[in-house]
Structures are given as C-alpha cells and as structure tokens.
Amino acid sequence: MNMWIPTEHEKYGVVLASFRGTVQHGLPLEIGDTVQILEKCEGWYRGFVLKNPNARGIFPCNYIHLKNAHIKNKGQFETVVPTEDSVITEMTSTLRDWGAMWKQLFVKNEGDLFHRLWHVMNEILDLRRQVLVGHLTHDRMRDVKQHITARLDWGNEQLGLDLVPRREFSMVDPDEISITELYRLMEHRHRKKETPTPVSTHHLFVHLKSLMSSNLGEELEVFFFIYDSRENKPLSERFFVKLNKNGLPKFPEKTERQCTLFVDLGSGDLRKDVYIVVHIIRIGRMGAGEKKNTCNVQYRRPFGCAVVSIADLLTADSKDDHLLKVYACNTESDWSQIHDNIIKKVNSRYNLSGSNTGLAVALQLLHGDIEQLRREYMVLFTRGVSITKKLGFSDVIMPGEMRNDLYITLEKGEFEKGGKSVARNVEVTVYALDTDGQILKGFVAVGSGEPGGDEYHTFVLYHNNSPRWAELIKLPIPVDMFRGSHVRFEFRHCSTKDKGEKKLFGFSFVPLMQEDGRTLPDGTHELIVHKCEENANLQDCARYLKLPFSKSNLPGNNQTVKGTKESLWITSFLCSTKLTQNGDMLDLLKWRAHPERISDSLSKLKEIDGSEIVKFLQDTLDTLFGILDESSQKYALKVFDCLVHIINLLQDSKFEHFKPVMDTYIESHFAGALSYRDLIKVLKWYVDRIIEADRHEHIQQVLKATEYIFKYIIQSRRLFALATGGQSEEEFRCCMLELFMSIRFFLSQENKGSRPITQTQAVFLQQFPAVYGELLKLFTVREVATFVRETLGSLPTASQADCPLEAVKLHCITKTVESQLYTNPESRCILLPVVLRLLQAHMQEQRDLVMCAHILTCMLSLLKKEDTEQTASEEVDLIVESVLGVLLRTILEVANRPQPAGPTLRPQVQDVTGEFVSCLLALLRHMKDRHYQQLLQRFTSKDDLRDFLLHIFTVFRILIRPEMFPKDWTVMRLVTNNIIITTVLYLSDALRKNFLSDKFDYKVWDSYFCLSVIFINQSCLQLETFSASKRKKILEKYGDMRVMMGCEIFSMWQNLGEHKLNFIPAMIGPFLEVTLVPQPDLRNVMIPIFHDMMDWEQRRSGNFKQVEAKLIDKLDSLMSEGKGDETYRELFNSILLKKIERETWRESGISLIATVTRLMERLLDYRDCMKLGEVDGKKIGCTVSLLNFYKTELNKEEMYIRYIHKLYDLHLKAQNYTEASYTLLLYDELLEWSERPLREFLSYPMQSEWQRKEYLHLTIIQNFDRGKCWENGIILCRELADQYESYYDYRNLSKMRMMEASFYDKIMDQQRLEPEFFRVGFYGKKFPFFLRNKEFVCRGHDYERLEAFQQRMLNEFPHAIAMQHANQPDQTIYQAEAQYLQIYAVTPIPDSQDVLQRDGVPDNIKSFYKVNHIWRFRYDRPFHKGTKDKENEFKSLWVERTTLTLVQSLPGISRWFEVERRELVEVSPLENAIEVIENKNLQLRTLITQCQTRQMQNINPLTMCLNGVIDAAVNGGLARYQEAFFVKDYIMNHPEDGDKIGRLRELMFEQAHILEFGLTVHEKFVPQDMRPLHKKLVDQFHLMKSSLGIQEFPAYVRASPIHFTNGSPRAGRNSAPNIMNPEGGARVVSRRSPLSYPAVNRYSSSSLSSQASNEVSNITGQSESSDEVFNMQPSPSTSSLSSNHSASPNVTSSAPSSARGSPQLSDKHKHSRENCLSPRERPCSAIYPNPLDPTQRPVPHPAGDASMPRSDPNISTPDKVVKPAPSSWSLDMPPSDFNGKGPPVPPRPPYTGSPAKTTRSQSPVMTSRSPQKTSVPPFTPSPTECQTTGLVSNSPVLSGSYSSGISSLSRCSVSEASGTENTSTDHALPNSASSGSDELIRRENKTPPPYSIHERNNPRRQVPLPPSLSIPPSIDAPPIPPKPHQIRRQDTEPRRPDQFPRPRPIPRKVSQL
Fold first, then answer.
1. CB under 8 Å to 1068, separation ≥6 — which residues?
2. Which helix (DSSP H) or strand (DSSP E) does residue 771 occupy?
3. What is the mean pLDDT of residues 796-804?
4. Other CB atoms within 10 Å distance of the CB of residue 990
5. How far apart are CA 1751 and CA 1762, in angstroms?
6. Residue 456 near residue 444, CB atoms below 8 Å
7. CB count, 10 Å around CB of 1383?
8. pTM of the predicted model as reported, rounded to 2 decimal places
9. 3-state DSSP call for residue 467?
10. If 0-12 CB within 10 Å is exposed, 13-18 middle and 19+ buried, where does residue 956 land?
C-alpha cells in the first residue's frame, strides 16, 4: 500500500476544472479555487481550499495548476504565500470579494453600480491577463499597474471596502513599515481621493469647423487671438486659418492648420474681461458686390468679427461646439476697433454680418502641464495641433528655452492724397531683409497654423488716407542673422480702375539692431515715409539705410522731414533669450573694454530687469567673479552685493527654475578658486555689523542668500584644495570657525525695543539648514553636527510665545530633521537632545502643533522596526523621556478642543491629531520591556504614575473613537488596537503593583476597565461582520484581540478582591455590553463576573438588588441596539445557574436569573418584531407585553414610561387613535395637578407637572376625537375645564366647554361603526414568547369581517397553519415546532346594562356601550346530546356556551388582550328554542317600528322577514317546537321545565300576535306590485294560526296592548299564571311586552327568505337560560343556519362572524333575541336614514294624552317627563297601569355589579332627559316621538354603525315582580313626592354612561372604571345638578371580582418624569 508523502515544493495551486469530490474523502473543488497542498500519493493530492481551511480532503493532481509560493512557519501550521507579483495577488483576492458583493447588488436592485462594477471587473481581468503574459515594456507595465490600482481603489470605495495602503502600486505590510509612514501613505491616498490639486496652468484648444454664410464666394482668412479688454491689448500670438469659397478649411487633410492650442494661460487669464477675438478677412475684389471684370488683382478686405469670453467656457460643456455670431463694421475706418466695440456693446458702430452668418468653432479649456496634456490627450497631439504662444515669456521661464521672436504691430499710417481727388486705397507690404539686402525667406509669420512667408500684405481700407490696421506679425529671425537685418514697409495705392494696378508711392524701414549691439527697443516708433516711384530700385538697400528711419532720432535741424505729414506707426516687442535691449547689461558684460565703468556697471546691475539677467546668467556670474579675482580689494563688497542680488532674484517664482542653472554653473563652470576668502571675509563683516546696524534690510537680503554664498565658498575651497593639494586647510577652518562664532554671537542676542534683530535671526535660521549639505563636503559628520548643535543651542530661550522667531526655530528644526545630516546615526545622537528640547518646549505651550507633529513624524520614521542596536534603543529612551508625557497631553488637548465652526480649519486639526497619534503609536511599538521599566521607574511618586496612567488610558479611548480615522482605514485601526492591547498588558502590571490593597485608586481602575470595554466593543474588531477572507487575514495576523482583552479584564477583576464592591453596580452595564459581543470564548470568560458581583453584593447588603436593577436597565438599551441573541440568553442562564448551585443565596439568585432571562426573551421578541417589514399588529402586541412586564414584574418606572410612548407612536402610525389615547392615559394617570417641576424627558421640555398633564390631556382628547370615542373625551374635557375654572383661566375654560359641546353633537350626529371581535389562539413553539400558547380577543378594524381578519392574521404569520375547528387543542399542538392559528368570532357582553336597558336612550349612545369597556365575550357552539331525532332535530340540539374574560377591557392600550379565564355552560334545547323565538320577535318589532315611523326607504326588509317567519311556520317551524316540547312525554320527563314551557308557549302566541299586526302595517305600506305576495302571506298566516291551533289569542295576549304610532287600539294584558320556580318558590311571572324592546338588528335576504322551510334556519343565537332577561345577539364563530356565511362546516347552529353576544345579567331573568341578517347583507338605505332629517322626525303628541303609557303607574302624568326612544314600544302595558289600579312599581335600585350576585333586575324610574336644571312641563309622550324641542329625536336604527351591536332590552315600561321579592316595596316612590325630591330620586337612579376614564379631583360622582384607570371615588356633593352622564353608578354592592381595579405596582406619581 502506497503512503501519503508530505510535499516539498508542490504547495500551492489553482483549480483548473471543478471536481465534485464523489470519491471517499474527496474534497469538492470549483474552478478558480486556490488550494494549499499538504501531501501527495499516486496522482492525488491531499489539502484544503484556502477559503475554507477546516475542510480537508483529496483531489486529482491533474485538476491543479501549480504555482510558486513562499512557505512560512513550515510544518503543522505552515502558510503559503504565492510568489507572484503582489498586484496580481491583490487583484485575485479583491475580485473574489467583489464577486459575492456584486451578486448582492443585483438582489438589492442597485442596477447602476451593478453594471459599472461589472465593466470594471472585466477591465481588471483583461489587465491581469496582460500582466500575467509578461510581454509589456517596463513603462507600459507601470501604466497598467497604475490603471489596475486606480480601478481597485474605485471599486473598494464604491462597495465600502477598506482603503489599501500602497507604495509603488504594491500593498504594504503594516508590520514592515513605520506607523508614521503608514499613516502618511493612507493620508496621501485619502487626500488624493478627496481633494484634487488645483492647477495653475491652462490651455485653450480651438478647432475651426466652418463659416456659414449666404454671401460667400471668396476665400477667407480667419485670425484668432486672446485679447485683454481691461488692458486693451492682445495676450497671445494670432492663429491663422485659410477657408475656401464655401467657408470650409482650405486644407482639410492638415488638421494642424485647423486646430491650435493657446498655451501657458495663467489662472488670472481666466476671467470675464479676457476674450477670444476672431477677425475674418476676405480675399477678393475691392467691393463685395462688384461685378466681375477683367481685373484679376485681389485685395485683403475686412469681412467680419466675432468674440467670446473665456469665462463662458468654464461653465459650458467641454465638448460643446460654439456657433459664434459674426459682426461687420458700419464704417470701415473703425475696423481696427471692432472687437472693442462689440465687447463694449457700442451698437452704433457694428451690425450683424447677416442673419444666418455664423462661425462654427470647437472650444475647450484644458488644465495642467503641457507634458501632462501630451499624455492625456495623445490623439490630439499625434493628429497634429499647432501651438500658439503667449506674447512674451510665460509666467515661468524655463532654462534652455530658446526664443528670438520680434513682434511688430502695424498700428496706423498717415498719407497724402498724392494729387488725387479722393483718398488712396493704401496697402502695406512688409519684408525682412538681411545685411546684403536679400529678403529673408519664410521669416514673416502672420500667425501659427500657417507656415511663415517671404512678405506680408496688410488689408486695404477703401479711400482712406489715415488707415488703422492693428495687425500683428512675428519675425522669428535667428540671433546670428539679427545684426544688420532690417524690415522694410512698402506703400502702394490700389487702383480700382483699369487693370487694378498697385502703384508704389513710398516706403519706410527700421533696422533691428543698433550700433552698440542693442536691439530695437520695445515700444511705438513713428517711421518716416520716404517717397519713391514704382520703378525705384529698392534692391540696393545700402542707398536708403543711410537715411533716417524714425522721426524720434532725427537731428534737430532736419525740420523738413519732421514737418512732413506722412508717417507710419509701428509697435515692436522683442521676446528673446539671447538678445538684449539694455545698455547697462552690455556695459557690464564688456567690463574689460571699459575698466573705468566697472563701479557704475556693478551699481546699475540691481536696476536691470530680472529677465535680462537670467538670460545672461552664466556670463554675468563669470563677469562678477572675474572682477573679484582681479580687483578683490577694490570691488569685493560691490561684487558680493551683486552676487546677493542675483541669488535673491532666483528666489522669485518667475525665475526659480533657473536655480538648477546656477547649481550647474557652480558644479561645472565656476572657476573662482580664490574667491572663498573674500566671500567669507565679506559675509563675516556683514554678520559682525548686525548688532550695531540701525537698518537691517540689506543685511537680511545678504542672509537670504546664505545657501548659495556657502555653495560658492565650499566649491571655491574645493577648487583651491584641488589645485594646491590641500594647502591652507587650517587657515580655512579657522576662518569658518570665526564665521560661525560671529553667527552664534549674533543669534544669541535677545531682542530689545523694536524687532530688527529677531527678524534678522529668523531670516538666517530659514536659510541655515540648507548649508548642512555643503559643509558635509569638507567637514566630517560629527563636526557638522557639532556646528549645528552649538549654533541652534545659542538661540535665546526666553522668547515670547508670539515671537515670530519661535516659529522659525521650529521650521529650522524641521529642516534639520529632514536633512541628510540627521539621517546619519552618528550625527543624530548629537543633534537629538537639542531637537527634543526645542520640540518639547513648543508642545508644552501648544504652539505650532502642525510643525511639531511633522518633526516628530520624521524623527520616528527613521526608527526602523529591525533596529535593535544600542543606539536605537537609547534614542527611543531619550524620546520617551522627553516627549511621551507631553505627547499624551497634546493629543488630549487637540482631540478635546472644540472644533471651529468654519469647515476650512477642520482638516488641519484632523491632520495634527492623526500625525500625533501615529507618532505615539510608532513610539509605543518601538518600546520594549526595558523601556517600560525605565519609564515606570522615572515616576518618583504615586501621583505622577497615576496621572500618567490616566492620561494614557484616556488617550487610548480617544484612539478607539470611530471618528479618529476615516471609516475605511481598517488597516490603521487594527495596527492601533494591536499596539494598545500590547501596551495595556505592560501597564496592567503597574496597576496591580501600585494601586491595590491599601493604595487602591478607584479612578485609575475605572479608567482601565472603561478602556477595556470600549476596546472590545469597537466595530473594527467585530470579526463576525467581515467577509470570510478578511476575517481569516485578521485572525492570522493579530488573533481575536477581543478575547485577549476579555481574559485580561477577568484576570484584573479577580485581583481586585474586596475592592470589587467599588465597581458594583457601575461596571455591570459595561461588562454586560462585553458579554453581548457574539464571541463564544469571550462570553464564557466574562459572564462568570456577574456571579462574582452577585456574591460580593450579597455579602455587603444581604441582597443583590443593585445588580438586578442595573442588569435590567442596561439590557433594554443594549438589546434595542441589536446586541445579544438567543444563544446568549441560553448561555447566560446556564453559566450563572451552574455557578450559583452551591451558594447559600441560591434561591434569590435563581429568581434574578429567571427574571433577567424572561426579560431577554421579551426584548429579543421585541427587537425581532420591530424589524423593518414587520406588521404593526405584531409590533404593538410585543410592545404591550414588554410594557406590562416592566410594570408588573420589574416595577421599572422610567422604562415603563418609555415603552408607553413607543406604543403610543406605533398606534398613531397604525391610526389606532382610541388605543393611542388609552396608552397615553397610562402616563397621564401617573401625574397630578401640581406645580412640581419635571425634568426634560423624551420629547417633553422641562416644565411643571401641571403643564405636562395639561398637554397630555389635550393630546388624549384630540386622539379620542379622531378615534370617535367622544364619551371618553368628554370626561377629560370636564376635568381640564375644572382646572381652568379653579385658576380662573376663562379663555381656555370657554374653549374646553365648546369642545365638550361639540363632542355631544358628534355623538348624536355622526356615524360610528361597531367593530367585530375575534378570538385568536396562537399554538406551537414557533410563535414569539408573548404569543406562544395563549389566546387573545382582538378588536377588528372597521368593516373587517371574519374572513378578512383570518386573511390578515395569516399574512402577519405567513408560516402559520389555520385550524379548521373551534375545539381546544391538545398538548401535541401546544408542543409542536410549528405555528397554529385558531380564529373565530365572539360576541361582546356589555357591562353597561343600565344604559342599554333604559328607555329613551338614543341608539347613537347605546351603540357605544355595546362595544366599549368589554371584559367578557361569548361564543356558542351547537351540538346534539343523546340520540338525534331525524324527524325533529330540535329535541336534542344543545348549545355549548363559552364565556371568555380578558385581563383588560377592550378597547384599551392594544387592539387585543389575553384571555384570563374561560367559563363553559351548556344551554338546553328548550332554552335554545326560547332564545330563538325571543330574538325573532325582537327583530319583527324593530322592523315594524321602522316601517311605521317611515324610517325605511322601502318595505322589502319587513316583507322578507314576515315571509321567512310565516313560510317557515307553515312548513313546520313552530310546529317542530310543539312536537318537541309540548308533548306529554317531555312534560312528564322534565317537570322542572314547566315555567320554561309556559314561557315558550307565550312567546309563540306573541309571535303570532306580532305577525298579525305586522301584516296590518305591511298592508298599509306595501306597493301595488307586491300585493299578491302580501295576499299570500295573509293566507299563509291563517294556515300558521290553524297549525298552531290558535282560533283567537288567549286573554293574556289579547290584553297586551299593541300600540303603534298609527293609533291602533291598545289592549290590556293579564299577568301570567303562577308557575313553580325550579328553586321551589312560587313566583309571579310579570312578562314584558313582546314589542317593548328596542333592538338593533341585521337583516339578510338569505336569512329572511322563505327558502328556509324549517325553523332551524332562524336559530342564530342561544341564551344562557330560558328566563334570562338580556339582549341576545347571534353567537360568534359561525353564521346562522339561514345564512350563507359560516366559519366551520361542522357547526350547525351558531352565529355569523358578525354576531354579537349580550351580557349576563341574572341566572333567573333573561331574555334573548335573534338576528336574521349577516352584516354584509344589510340594506343600508332601509336601515340608515339620517337621524337628523326633519322629514323623519315624528310629530309630538299633545301633552296629557291619557292613552300613552307611563313608565311607572305610581307617578302621575304631570310628574313624568319621559323621552323614550322611537323603538321603545309599550305594547304590553296592562289596563290597570292606565287606571292607576296596578300595584306600585318600585324604582330600580342602582346596578349592583355581577349578575351572579343579583337575583333580578328591576326597572328604573324614568326621569327627565332634559339637561336643564328645571324640569320641563309634563306631557304625555309617544313612544316613537321626540319629547322635547331641545333634543334631537332618536332613531331606532343603528345610529350610524354598520356593524351589528347588542340590542338593548328596554325596561322602562314594565316592572317585574316575583312572589319572593319581599324587599321591592321598600323602594316604592310616594306619589306625593315633590318635584325637587322627584328630581333628586331621578338623578340618583339615572345611570350614566360608564366611561372608561374618570375625573379626578372633581366633585362629581365616580364612574366604575376599567382596572387600568380606576381611582378612589370622591364623596363631595355636586355643586350643580349634573347632566345625565355626569351621574355615576353607586358602588353600593360589591363588584364581581374581575371588575375590581387591577393592582398597579407603579407608584401613583413618576418622580421627575
């Protein structure tokens, strides 16, 4: 068997093809992966992919392309680094990282960057191939690498990746270079990325395309030049283009003739008053419109002009073509000024050349050096472009530049008529001629773009004897041809007659050089016009050159020529590097010819223009040193001064480029071997005179030239030594020492009085460092260093801080440190002390910090990492001793300095901080054990050491700040952190040794711990957030520094001992933050510290409340920031539980850990729910859960209030305004109406408690208004109004009363929708903790029905499974790893029965109480018990009724609350039947009422309902009940149901009675087309009566008065016979009229149609017991059997999803009703008429109508003011009630709470509904009419609510009595009661709306509140008679247990919040 052999050289390779790894131990590979090879065996390698080193396996050899690699740490932990070019390696790794991110860009839909990155990646791949091939030249390779790195940096910046430090295109290893250098590299790259360097040189590219004009036909010449309108002169030469007759370039193939570059424009030339001027000249006939003749002579004639401002090009698009308008002169004589007139807009002198004439030109401004442009615009230069120069020299004159250009401008001429009657047409021809009179060929240049010519013809102005041309020509005549040459101007008259001849009539000339060798001076010259004839011989120039040429140099006696009128004016300008016009210069250069003029010439040198001197620099210097050598005694001082003048001339920016010329001269051409003596002597003489001199200007000029003077001295001495073999060495050294002694003496002088000496010292110090290099040429390093040290050491130290010398000193030190001298270690040890002394002094005084930082950077960059020599170590010691302390203080000072407002200063401050930081880091990195020991030993006292540690820890905290470095400087941050942790490890020993036990110092330890915590938490160390490759690199280089620091924290904590108590609870939060870092090792190290804290706290105080409080406080803020996870929760729990197993305080510890763990569960749920994209419902539910946890379990006041506001914001966002109000009310309740000041908190300003509570009240009122919960708003309005009233703030009181009144109006006028309620069960472990295995009741949104709600819940929980049954789930569902949702509708059971059952309360008001403040909900599920009779299933149809009680009432702070208790009751078939018929009777009454009062728009609902009931009855509906319950067997078997059977029989007769009356009403209103249906209904009704065996109604039915508003007669009703009570007592059943219950019902065509042939179809809800007196609404969860909507197919008899339940009142007194309609099928038009419509208001009956019923027969008519609702019918009042013979009915006592405690419900005494204090005159009301003019009539309909509510059963018109009611008579009201007492009793018994909010400090009666809002009642009597809903229910009887206010652990008031 072959063995696996470790590989030697085959270590690294790239995968060529993908390998699936299907073999045993195979490693899957993808093409392009890089692999590290470990072993080899028979064609197989074993190794791993570098991106996943943990997975190892085998793969075939032939799949791998091997590459050379360098192996580090050979052996088990070896790493391989490819030996390829570092740029290639970086490209490969970067492209891999980009690839993954590039795909994510597509996912995130960032299309633009996606495509740009794709192109860049392809470009980089292409460049990579070129580099790999290796065929590129060195220059090309450099360009490619530069291009690659630029692209890599661009991509990294776009993707937010790190900035890569590079040197020469290669990545640098931060460990291999100094940190100061690393910082400089990164800063350079960062600045390069941010700020482009400003460019001072600009160039203008011009490309002439064409001239567009309709009147062409002649060739054109176009001249461009740049013109300064401010100075009225051209700035450049002219660019000349010839156009053909079509206006196109004449030579299109020669692009250089169409394009030019105006070069060397300065930044000052790019301004508005600098223009590009274009002159266009036509070549052709004299007149543009002349007809062709035989004359072929052509003239240059003006055509047009165009101008454009250069400033316009700065804003225009660089590629734009410009169409320039062309203008022509109105008068030809103005042609020379046309461009000025156009610029100045002198419109009278020019006009458009033609409406369609334009010059098409491309103009582009280019910036930068001309060489840079050649690289960037290579195509431009290779294609050909002419260069157009500036007139004269550019701003910077370059040495070697050769120019000899003479510019001549023909300005104007003055000529005589010459005997002509009209003026001449003058043309000037220009020639350049040499000494022999020969024409210089090609030296007359009109402009760039066209080659020079032999002659030049000016343009001709028609009939003009005083022509003005202003035409510029250039004569580039070589220097050697300049002497003896001249220019001749010939004048000809151009005749337009005959043959058009040009006749010569004169000439002028001008020589180019004068006799003395000076050239023609610049300026304007008036030339003499010499007359001649055409045939004159001008070839012999000798004849006329003797004549005078200019009028300015004529002899005085030659008046003849001077007086002539004819002249030619020209302007000349010489631009030459070789010729001069200066005579003084020539005198100096020819000093040997005139020795007597030497002194004058030397004196005049300073007055000569600098450009003349630099032109002849070498000649001038030779002259000066020649004079010095020959006459040193006589002229030494003057020559020295001239030399100083020339040296300082080269300091000028215009001539600074000539310094290399002087350097070259000194090195190569200087020959003054003896000059050094004189130079030293004169220099010393000047230095010695400094102290006595009054004026220092000249001496300062001398000292400015120190550098070059020393260069001359040193070079002269070298030449002398070379020539003499080193003679006079000692003499030279003595001279130099004396010179330096003089310098030191002058430098040591302190300033007295004014400052000339200081300024002179400063001038010398600026130049001094430049001398070092020269001195080194003749002296040793140590000698020069000693010179420098003593010279710098002689400077005065006690200077003022603002002295300019201080800055110059530092500048000198900077130059010294940068010099070659300091680089040498030998000299460095000599210079270092003086440098550090000056540096330390400046840093201590915080002066010139930028320069200090630069000096320190230079010093430390010289310390190499590998320097381990003794000298380097001593240097580090010296720097640490001198600078470390002051460096720390400086960083602290600079970092904490307030940043200036101006943005310009920030980068400088940042630069300083960064520089100092890099210096500190570099210094710390060079420090070893020995340095730290010496550093710590230097501290003589503990206080000094303490201050040092505090300083360095604070500085480290500053270095860790995110803003310390730019965000992409990860490399710099990692290096910083590595140095920090190394330093902290050194210093922690000092901390342990010096600041423990009795020397403990809290501040130092606290600073240490804070630093450690911040260190661990910084973002650049969170490796989990990085890519795998980046994480791997960091771990390989530095390891996980967080774990290292964590271990150090733990170690230091353990050393603290009893001092740990000082850090409890302060360090709990920081340590908790550390443990939340997702690093398992760090967590395992740090979590046990909490056990330690608990233990020490337990020892100190016997508990660990502080630990618990701090943990809880910090957990919330940290987890909300995204820290922590489920793993942490489990780890925290398990580690601490294990730790406390053996502790004595184990129980309390377990409790704490459990509490914290539960809080974590909720916080994690909260954080998950608050993520973007989560639904509002889940967020709200989670917030409520957390809020309650803080309130009930933790009692954390501030956190509780914070979450109240978070919940409030969520509600507002979801538009849950009612819930938002309830939420904010929680905070409002914690405040009192006091003046206690509250601090600023959340968004609240600092204010008094009263002000904050007022603000909260107003906000809550506003939200109650928006949520249409006006009843609640009214209470707060009144509470606020009381406060305003107590403060006499009547203005606000008025507003509050008006707002309260508006709420009353809104209650009566506006529609309100009644919401649906749904029970939701969340089962399974996958739900969040706050939902898991719990059931809730949820208040639905407006218009939301069961199906919509189910869909919404499934959308909120997309992974949930909807359960299809309503049964309680078993344990398997509870424990399942899934989500199950069980949803069905439930019916609310209102608590406010006293309001709902009171007659006369409008439905608008009742509808509020049906669906508000609901604690209990009901759900009915039908089922069959026993054998099911197929013939009649009613016999066995039972109902399972579930009552759910919530933890809080709805609505509340959430739309859903958890179910606290479930109660199950079974309803028998008989009770079920009673409820069904009661409900149907109730529905019929309502519809009949609405029909009578004409509230129905059509009669269809009544028709359908009658049809459904009668048709069902005929087909066996009621008969089924008879068969089931009236048979003898049932009565015998169920003797206890006797009263119920009687009740059922009564209800059946009632239904028939109601149907009969309903048919009567129907007949009145039925339309004609429905008469047949009505007849059918009547016939079927008779059949129904006969099927029931009714021939006529029994006496008790007939006695029941059915009084409708149409005046139908009312009959009395006898009492029901006594029936035995199931409890054994006899009881009189006093039954209420079947039509006396106002109801709000739903109608459905499906449930009311005659399709239902069985009464089962009408079963929509069941009551709790047969005699329960309450309002029955269909049961939830399923629709009625007659409805089309059902929630579950197996439920046979339950309510539609929109059904409502009714409250339990008493087990003995119960009514029920049935709803036949599902809400979505309700016809709105029939049911929702406008209650305010006057046409629907019934007319009041006259007062005193004896036929109307009274609510209480014991109260006389005048004593009653009754306002029943229109639906409150009194059809069943017995006649005895009207005759006063009936028994007195006691007033109803106040509602006493739980129905379980109450045996009966009694009718209240009806009182006046008027809110006025005095009673209204009595009248007899109609049950369907408004009773008072001040109140709007009440509609019996839904009062604006679309969803069905609980129908109230009015108890106002009947009283119930029982044989066992022995106390009821005690409450009878005497008839003789006065109106006052009557009012009082009425007020006492009238029950107000039970609002969910209360009034505090209010002298009104209290309202029972939901537990969250309850307060102690006030017992003060009301000062004024209360309004109806001001009355509060008296708590005379105990409430049911779940109605008591819940205990609130939060204190009543919140301190300072």
1. 1090, 1093, 1107, 1110, 1111, 1114
2. none
3. 65
4. 18
5. 8
6. yes
7. 21
8. 0.63
9. coil
10. buried
